[in-house]
Design brief:
It is a single chain. The chain is of the alpha/beta class. Helices cover 18% and strands 32% of the residues. The protein is built from four helices and 16 strands. Strands 8, 9, 10, 11, 12, 13, 14, 15 and 16 form a nine-stranded mixed beta sheet that branches. A seven-stranded mixed beta sheet has the order 1-2-3-4-5-6-7, with helices on one face. Helix 2 runs parallel beside helix 3.
């Protein structure tokens, strides 16, 4: 875990890729992409069909550790409009157990269908809890306290003549972009303009690996 501040608010970047807001007892996940594996199967690209179960098990593990009162899923929680035709009843029951046990917010993302009213929780386009604003995709302009996902950030680091890459959080103390939490989600280098153009020039990454470690922009490899 790595502690940092966003708009003078203490947050914890967890090794899992989840974010924790201690003051509000809130866990935040981004880009679960549930049923992505079965969507690939529809395209005749066959991957092990266990990504939804693995993702939900890891969600439960994080929740059991932090014991929050509230959970926010930052969008792209589901991979496509027809995910519910493919998900198992056991996994639906697992989701309902979570949404019935906690105050749960589903933020709408570009992959999500119109909402998930049958799965409990509250569906929103964005959520404001000052000084933080939660949305799926970073918004240009004033962004003090913005928490978002969407870009699946990862970083490549050069350290002691070696280089390595992994998922990461990226923050400039005004906004933070979370890594994707889902099992089959991949990532985009934070040095890509699609991500870096949202950030001030002195941004930092919190790289996931054996532990969460902070690196400045100057340590990153495009």
């Amino acid at each position: 875990m790595f502690e940092f501040y966003l708009s003078n608010t203490r947050l914890i970047a967890d090794i899992s890729g989840a974010l924790f807001w201690p003051e509000k007892q809130t866990v935040i996940f981004s880009d679960l992409h549930l049923e992505k594996g079965s969507w690939f199967a529809k395209q005749n690209i066959f991957l092990p069909p266990y990504d939804t179960l693995d993702t939900l098990n890891r969600v439960e593990k994080v929740i059991n550790y932090f014991k929050p009162s509230r959970v926010i899923s930052l969008g792209d929680s589901f991979h496509d409009d027809t995910w519910m035709e493919r998900i198992s009843k056991d996994q639906i029951a697992k989701i309902l157990n979570l949404t019935n046990s906690y105050e749960w917010f589903w933020i709408h993302g570009n992959h999500d269908p119109s909402g998930a009213p049958s799965l409990g929780g509250i569906n929103l386009n964005h959520y404001l809890d000052p000084p933080l604003t939660f949305r799926h995709e970073a918004k240009r302009g004033l962004a003090d306290g913005e928490v978002s996902g969407h870009f699946h950030p990862k970083a490549k680091i050069k350290l002691n003549r070696n280089s390595f890459a992994d998922r990461c959080f990226v923050s400039d103390e005004k906004r933070v972009i979370l890594p994707a939490f889902g099992s089959f989600t991949g990532g985009l280098n934070v040095m890509d303009k699609a991500i870096s153009s949202f950030l001030q020039d002195d941004f930092k990454v919190f790289l996931l690996g054996s532990k969460v470690r902070q690196f400045p922009k100057m340590a990153l490899i495009p």
